[in-house]
Amino acid sequence: MSDDLIEAVHRRFNVSAGAKSLFEQVAKSSAQERASILRNVETLRTGVGLSYALLALYRQQVDSGFVLADPLKSDGKRDREIFDSHTGIAFRLQWNPHRELRKNHALLVEHKVIAEDVDETRLVNRDGNGKACYLCKTNIDLQNPGEVLLGVVLAGETFYVGANFAYITDNHFTVMNAEHRPQRYRPEIPEILNDFTDKTEGYFRVIFNGLAGASIERHEHMQATTAEFPIEHVRIEDNNVLYESKSLTISQPAYYVPLWVIEGRDREEVEIATDRIISTWHGLNERDHTENMIAVKSGDRYRVFVILRDRNRLSSSRAGKKGAMAAFETGGIVVLSYGPGPHGDDIDEKRTFDNANLATVKQMMHEISPDGQYCAELCSRMCSAGFGV
Q1: 228-256: per-residue pLDDT in tens?
Q2: CATH number, domain at 266?
Q3: Helix H segments across the chain?
């Protein structure tokens, strides 16, 4: 991180000389200084706030090598924007070959993402194939020598926040439940998301992928980032508003996957309405219906973007995107990193990036969009029920 960017962060949080010095001390610390890092990060959290503390921790994880490449350096990474006048969104396409570094075992060992020798008898929560859970803190402490986790209480539950070693954006964290529980939506999720945006004073966005793009389905987790999602600028017309009161607005703006936007100043109302929409969606097809969620906070206004998904429609290979699309993609950041195999008979996402236009983005979204009849039924039921607010 260059000196001018460091100074911009310090100015943003209006910190003292002592806090600046401690931030820089954290950033320069090695993985072997975990206890000292956590003490200093806790001091920053107490004195300045959770966001500033997380920024210091993330910089340490980048500078120590745990994050496999620096998000602030291009090093072959490229971005493109494609504006869509229909939705008002500038979709962002990202060519990020750094993502593929996560498949290089020797590099992961070198960067202390994984340990060479692990006492397998101490690992917990194995799956049917004997693989221990990657997101349980006990296992991380044994298997991931370079990772530093910060504990945080969200909606009364303990979570651990750790830098994503194969980043998508700068300040990209995974937020892991301390309890080993499956990645399934539950009514507490909206409260947990909003509590994170509260505790970071709106500086971070936080996302939840139900069974639509979550790579580890055995352990509940969210992701957080300081990056703005293009979907935050979706155009909302008067005729898109389905419900409005002094403290809550629920709308369905024009978008290429079914989108509900729940926003208001009353956090509890936002959470109740969000849960009613998602729970009703699940009730229409308990086996297949799932969701992506993006929670942001602007001033005193909470905004939750709920993108309806179907487990049978997770990928858009015909449009040149390999693997499942999740909240980053449905939120308008299309991440492309995959190159074809040695025989060239697989999807080439670099070619997709170079040749993509608005029609490409629309096709990607169309391929993952759930059955329109279910979406219409959800709208009908919610409007009839008055959203339960």
Answers
A1: 999 999 999 999 999 999 999 999 999 99
A2: 3.30.428
A3: 3-13, 17-27, 34-47, 50-63, 105-110, 137-143, 189-199, 267-284, 327-330, 349-355, 358-368, 372-385
Are 118 and 18 part of one and the same domain?
Answer: no
- Over residues 306-365, the pLDDT tens digits come to 999 999 999 999 999 999 999 999 999 999 999 876 656 689 999 999 999 999 999 999
- Domain contains 71: no
d(CA 199, CA 203): 9
Residues 41, 82, single domain; the answer is no
| Residue ending a domain, choose from 16, 37, 63 | 63
The one-letter amino acid code at 240 reads N
* Dihedral angle computed from the Cα positions of residues 219, 220, 226 and 231, in that order, rounded to the nearest 10 degrees: 120
Q: What is the domain range of residue 195?
A: 78-388
Q: Where are the beta strands (DSSP E) in 68-202?
A: 78-84, 89-95, 150-154, 157-163, 173-177
In a domain, 279, yes or no: yes
Residues 118 and 193 in one domain: yes
Q: What is the pTM of this model?
A: 0.96
Which residues, 6+ apart, have CB-to-CB distance to 310 below 8 Å?
A: 212, 285, 288, 289, 290, 368, 370, 371, 374
